[in-house]
Amino acid sequence: MPETRENYISVRYPVVSFVPSYREVVCDGTFTMDVVVDELSTGLSGYVLNVSFENHGIGDVVGVSYPSWARLNSTSGLPGDVVRLSAVDLDKVVEAGTTNVTLATLTIKGDAPGTASIMYESVRVESDDNGMTITTAPVNGAMSVYATIAADFSANATASTVGPLSPFVVGFTDNPMCSPTPSSWEWSLETTTPRRFKIRRTPTQPLASTRSR
Predict the structure, then answer these.
(1) Sheet holding 151-153: strands in order across?
(2) Which residue, of 115, 146, 177, is where some domain finishes?
(3) Which of residues 146, 176, 192 is at a domain's end?
(4) 20: cis peptide before it, omega within 30°?
(5) What pLDDT score does 1 carry?
(6) I need a labelling partner for 55 at 20 to 30 A (CA). Which of 26, 115, 198, 207 fits?
(7) In terms of residue numbers, what domain contains 177?
(8) Is 38 exposed, middle or buried (0-12, 13-18, 19+ CB in 10 A)?
(9) Residue 112: per-residue pLDDT
(10) Is residue 159 over pLDDT 50?
(11) Cβ(151)–Cβ(173) under 8 Å?
């Protein structure tokens, strides 16, 4: 006979997550993410946690700020891909039943093209109830870093040029960020009549050979 359970309690753990959960950033650019716990039924006396990146080298935490209730706080490992955060609610501002509590705000920098999970490690949250440890359910975030293409470009036919030239040679220099791959380039040449164009590139970093259109 199947077992029947009655009057049992469903346990839900407070969720610690990144808000927003995903961000995109250009290489060498920065963005912010909040560390948020969704509900604290017994209040908050303090916390300590580590933030790390699944793929090392993709991003770093370069700054941390804390909310006003966290007057006593500490950060170690900046800048880096493993950072330790801690704070104490000395004035008991975060009371029992408070929801959507920001624990800290991270400033994250994109270091190299790619994607990486941003993870919580060693999360310890203590309640106002005699400093008892609250079991939490951490939810990871993620980031993507992309490279931009920039070119110092100029092409001018001089006044002494007589008649159509084929090919018309254009020289310019790549100024890329984060070593983009050759497939990142797309050429768009505006012309209303069929003509031959040859584009010659002088890269500042090894990228690709001359392309023609």
Answers:
(1) 151-153, 168-174, 197-202, 211-212
(2) 146
(3) 146
(4) yes
(5) 46
(6) 207
(7) 149-213
(8) middle
(9) 92
(10) no
(11) yes
Q: Nearest 5 degrees, angle CA 123-CA 124-CA 127? A: 140
- Are 97 and 163 in the same domain? no
* Predicted TM-score of the model (pTM): 0.70
Alpha-carbon distance values, 186 to 153, 181, 189, 213 (Å): 14, 12, 10, 11
Nearest to 86 by CA among 53, 58, 40, 51: 51
Phi-psi region for residue 7, left (φ > 0), alpha (ψ -120 to 50) or beta? left
Buried b / exposed e across 201-212, counting CB within 10 Å, b at 16+? beeeeebeeeee
| Residue 95 three-state SS | coil
Residue 201 and residue 182 share a domain: yes
Residue 9 maps to a domain: no
Which residue is listed with tokens 């604290």? 40
For residues 67 and 132, state if they share a domain. Answer: yes
List all residues 6 or more positions away from 188 whose beta carbon is below 8 Å from its beta carbon: none
Ramachandran region of residue 147, left (φ > 0), alpha (ψ -120 to 50) or beta?
beta
Where b means 16+ CB within 10 Å and e means fewer, 150-166 reads eeeeeeeeeeeeeeeee
One domain for residues 153 and 135: no
- Residue where the block lists tokens 């250009």: 26
Least confident among 81-85, 108-112, 156-160: 156-160
| Structural domain contains residue 19 | yes
Query: In this structure, which amino acid lies at residue 64?
Result: V
